[in-house]
Structure formats: structure tokens, C-alpha cells
Amino acid sequence: MSRTYDEERRFDSVYKLVTLGEAAVGKTSLVNKYVTGKFQRDYHRTLGIDISTYDAKIGTYLFKLLIWDLAGQDIFRDLRTRYCQGASGGIVVFDLTRPQTLETAPRWVQAFRDAVGPEPLLILLGNKADLEKNRKITPEQGEKIASDLGLFQYKETSAKTGQEVTEAFSTLAIKIKESHESRRSPP
Ligand code: G3D
Ligand code: MG
Question: How far apart are CA 166 and CA 151, in angstroms?
């Protein structure tokens, strides 16, 4: 089906998004789930940066999302600036079953802001919500950290069941769109 004029016109909303957070919290799985609709159990460990390109129709908008996903922390330290440069936003992911992955969230947020400044939007995701029995972090704790860090929202996700995965990326893209528009035309 050919695109309507409206869609063509809006297709220039191209956003680079980055994944941030400790190893094994589910960053790659969330991206895979979002872009392919599949949960990949036997993935190969990412060696560098994976860039997924995804044309997302969200409401009446058509976005092109370039989702950058990075492997281990050591590599992160070296590539931090280049990795984050030009990003419109990002997802900060922690594992609901491992509190230490939430404790380091402020450092990921700070590193991102050091590289790109305060404007690009970040959403906090508490992932592995399907492992309810092993949960160590309450929704209230997640909400509080997100708000203390100035992140615009907190969501609990599961790359396994798909819970809130599409919603997380959609909300981020829409929020970026709104913030760009309000900056372009102040009230
Ligand atoms: P990372 O990219 O943040 O390092 P990965 O994390 O996406 O590689 O995921 C790390 C491990 O957590 C993987 O397990 C993956 O299958 C699992 N995982 C990711 N998201 C979820 C989730 O929402 N629920 C559950 N139950 N598991 C998840 P393996 O065993 O393959 O290392
Ligand atoms: Mg990964």
C-alpha cells in the first residue's frame, strides 16, 4: 500500500535511540522483541554496537527509529560519546530481580547526559516483569528513581511476554516528537 501524503510528510521524524543499563538486564531482548515481535532466547552475545532500523507507525505518525544497542560496560566506557552522540532519547533498563542493576541507573543517566546534554529524553524500564516471584523492586521504587533522576516515565516490561515493550518505545518516540515541537513553537 502506498503511503499517504501525510505519512510521507511525517516520515522525516528520524530518531536515534540508545539502550543504557547493566549487562544482562534485557536490553538486546527488548530491542529484538520490539523490532521483530519475537523474544530471542538463543541470541549471540553482541560484540559491538547493533543498530536496528525500525519504521514505526504510532497513531498518525510514521517514525524511523534507529535503535543503537551496545554490549559490555567496558566497551561502553570507550565509546560512550560516539555511542550517545546525536541521540534523541534512550531507554535505561534494569532487572526487577537484581536491585544492583537499579542502583547503577544514575550513573548511566549521568554518562548519557554528559555526552548529549539534558534535553534528550530517557524512559526507565524495569524489565523481566514476568519473573514475578523473583521480583525485588516494587513499582513505587521504580517510579521514585525515575522521578528523582528526571526521567519522564517508568514502565515495567517483559521481553519474554512482550508486556509494555511496544508501549515503551512508542511513548518515548511520541514524547520526543512533542518535546521537539514545543521547543520549535514555544507557547
Ligand atoms: P542485555 O542486552 O541487557 O545484556 P539480554 O541482556 O537481552 O542479552 O538478556 C540477558 C538474559 O536475560 C538473556 O538470558 C535473556 O533471555 C534474558 N531476558 C531478557 N529479558 C527478559 C525478560 O523480560 N524476562 C526473562 N525471564 N528473561 C529475560 P540468557 O539465559 O539467554 O542469557
Ligand atoms: Mg545486549
Answer: 18
From the CA of 93, give the closest atom in ligand 1. Answer: 3
pTM reported for the whole predicted model: 0.90
With 70 as the cut, is the pLDDT of residue 44 above it?
no
Q: Which residues touch 101 (CB under 8 Å, ≥6 apart)?
A: 21, 22, 25, 94, 95
**Which residue range(s) make up the domain with 86?**
5-184
Q: How distant is the alpha carbon of residue 171 from its chain centre?
A: 10
The 10s digit of each residue's pLDDT in 153-175 is 999 999 999 999 999 999 999 99
> Under a CB-based contact definition with an 8 Å cutoff, are residues 159 and 39 in contact?
yes
CA of 127 to the centre of ligand 2 (A): 13
Lowest mean pLDDT among 5-9, 98-102, 152-156, 175-179: 5-9
Q: How many domains are there within the chain?
A: 1
Task: Name the residue with the closest Cα to ligand 1, atom 18.
Answer: 26
165: three-class secondary structure by DSSP: helix
Cell 536515534 found at: 16
The finding on whether 19 has its CB within 6 A of some atom of ligand 1 is: no
CATH number, position 99 = 3.40.50.300
Ligand approaching nearest to the C-alpha of 25: 1
